[in-house]
Design brief:
alpha+beta, five-stranded antiparallel β-sheet
Length: about 140
């Protein structure tokens, strides 16, 4: 039997929303191979929504399929401006920002965004990583 574990929360559009989103991911997938990437990518997506959009809140929806290990995250904001990702342009190594979408594109299985009249949602999908050397991380603990 598989379980779909989900979270759906609306957070004020403040920098502390990043920490709350990261803690939510940790609570859902702490022992999974996608956990580190999920924490990083949700942090980047929420930080982008907080920094680059207007509106009172950011909505986060996360679902995790315990059978397949797939994790799907949505970050919704109230801006219709599309995320700018230029795959051929490397982020400036000296800049403090500009890496979020590059990381999301590089680490996720797939990602995208959808716009509607109220704003947009950025989504990304992570799949479990193959265990290194054929040894399960649970065997090492």
């Amino acid at each position: 039997m598989h379980t779909l574990i989900a979270a759906d929360l609306t957070l004020p559009r403040v920098p502390q929303a990043v920490t709350r989103a990261r803690h939510t991911v940790t609570a859902l997938v702490a022992d999974c191979t996608v956990a580190d990437d999920a924490r990083l990518l949700i942090s980047e997506a929420v930080a982008n929504a907080v920094e680059h959009t207007a509106g009172p809140a950011v909505r986060i929806r996360i679902s995790h399929d315990s059978r397949s290990g797939e994790l799907l995250c949505h970050v919704r904001d109230f801006s219709r401006t599309v995320p700018r990702h230029e795959p051929t342009a490397a982020p400036d190594g000296e800049a403090e920002g500009g890496r979020g979408l590059h990381l999301i594109a590089a680490l996720s299985e797939s990602w995208g965004y959808e716009r509607d009249a109220a704003g947009k949602q950025l989504w990304f999908r992570l799949l479990p990583k193959e265990e290194a050397w054929g040894v399960s991380s649970k065997m090492i603990k």
